[in-house]
Give the backbone structure.
Amino acid sequence: MGRIYSAAEQVIVWLGASTPEIERQFRVIDDGETHQSSETTSAQVDYVALFSLLERPWFRRIWVVQEVALGKQVVILCGESVMQLDALRPHLSALWNRHEIWPQFVIDNAPYRGLWCVTRLLDLRDQFQADDMVPYEVLLEACFHFLATDSRDRIYALRNMADKTRPVPDPDYTAITEDVYVEASKALLCSGLSLNLLCLAGLGHRKERQSLPSWVPELREDNHSEPLVLSRRLNWAAGGCLSSQPRFIAPAHLLVEAYSFDTITVTGEVISSNSVQTLQRNIREIIQLRESLPVNAKSQNISMDSWLEMVWKTLVMDMDIDDNPVPPEYGIHFREWLDILESCSNEKDEEKLSANVFHRTLGIRTDECRPFLTSHGYFGVSQAILQPGDEVILVPGCQVPLVVRRCQGDIAASPSDGAVYSCTLQGWSYLYGVMYGEVKIANSEVQTIMFK
């Protein structure tokens, strides 16, 4: 099918029957494209109707990724209405910023997931059209948002767009899903120049299934964290360049070179932007963390203004709501958000929160994350599962810090394997002051560890 879509002059997508509201939106958007007046057209768009269009199942199917990425021109039909898929581009940012309709949509419902999927579909299309391939890790990160009838297709459906340099297994529908995920992960980690797949793995993302090793992404579980999107846009480089490729140890262990950077000492309550009371506790707790900075930490004498800057940049992970580097005015939005949050007592106050762009960005970036402080005074956020005593490691070849938990009373490996300790991967983290390669890793500080 990949060759067919690549050779086609036009890929035509049928979305089903239309409605009068959707028909009107097709005409408005098409007129804007024809007359190159998308800015004036935006005022005429009914964004609730456009959200209902994105509710259609096509936008959320894993196999449509190749239709969009490989097709020279993608046309969507709804009833008798016709529109170029690319015509949606200028309206996606408006949808993400349409705060007055956001209370109607939550992360797990169809319109919201459709918006997320079409945003990433067009990103993947751009990457493929520019480079003639998309790194497998980037495709796998996007596929968390999509639906697959057969879970093995979360690997197989992406092959036609992915880089062909690594021995990802060919489609085999007699293989069990867990084996497909392990073999694909082994191929991507042990045969390439990047270990970024590790930031999609970890026990922190898993709610139901626990059978896979911690270093293998559980693609059947929802994961709205997007470390690779952020890494690519912001040029994160926490782990530096790959020093040596991991080694697979049967039955399902992975030996990795890593630098044990710091230990988590204090954790806060899990962030929830959908609960005002929880969010009020969150921010009070986070501001009070400044008092827990260790005496020997470089940041121990940090001013409150500097601490708050560190906090707001961490809570949005340096990225604005449109996936661009966060501008300085977000600091102003943060201060306004603090004032609104402090005085929140009724529904109108909550509406003011929803209107604040910092609040909406926080909801996308760090909802369901847990803030933490390390023994050396670093502030960060990671998965809800983390706890004091977990360690932050930097892995050469991985752009983000990882959080691990040592296996107690366990022999890591045989002496010939050389592993210092064994651990389970909990997930990735944003750690202020580390993301851009500020920490230089000497070869002498790198140890071999075993992921289980």
Q: What stands out?
A: Residues 62 and 148 are 6 Å apart (CA to CA).
